[in-house]
Amino acid sequence: MPSISALLPQPRTRARVAVYLDGAFGFTISQELVVQERLSIGTRLNEAQCGALQVADTQQLALRVAYRYLSYRPRSEAEVRTRLRKHSDSPEVIDIVVARLKEQRLLDDVQFAADYAGQRTQATPRSRRMVTWELRRKGVAADVVEDAVDGLDDEAAAYRAALKRADRLRSLPFVEFRQKLGGFLQRRGFGYSISARVITRVWAEVTGADPEE
Fold this sequence. Notes:
By secondary structure, this protein is mainly alpha-helical. Helices cover 61% and strands 9% of the residues. The chain folds into three domains: 4-103, Arc Repressor Mutant, subunit A; 109-149; 154-207. It has helices at 31-36, 47-72, 77-85, 91-103, 109-122, 128-137, 142-149, 154-166, 174-187, 192-207, and strands spanning 4-9, 16-21, 24-30.
């Protein structure tokens, strides 16, 4: 059974260590794993142990990728899996990392979809149909999306969106105001009837004028 003859930190990444067995290069793993497994000069490793160390190292690397990816903003499970596939070609490793993230409550599509739907209808209001489409694009299951958007009020969201936009359009004649604001609401996924009611309401509120006058 070969033994470790050298543990050499890598020049470009000090957190990585090259493991030499009986004077020959064996494999590279993280410094963290070296400490965790109490590896040192003279430690004997059989083929199975060497393989297990490399698998554990791959899992650690994938988990770091996932942590970094999630640090920017919440993600769906499908988004995380897509990201991990760019760094690992092992479905087993990806499954293990995803399971770990779920255990740590860092990955939860139900919560992700609910939070996303709430944020989208408040901060950047858009229609239920558009929120549904966006969540499905992120790989969230149809039943989870349906629960997340259930109860969203398109007219209330359209009103919030229109009110934010209307201030910069208030100097326009009503016909242009309606055209520009209608196009804006359409791009947010709102239908004609809701948009028409909301535009009339917002025009009256921001100008104090009756659109029929």
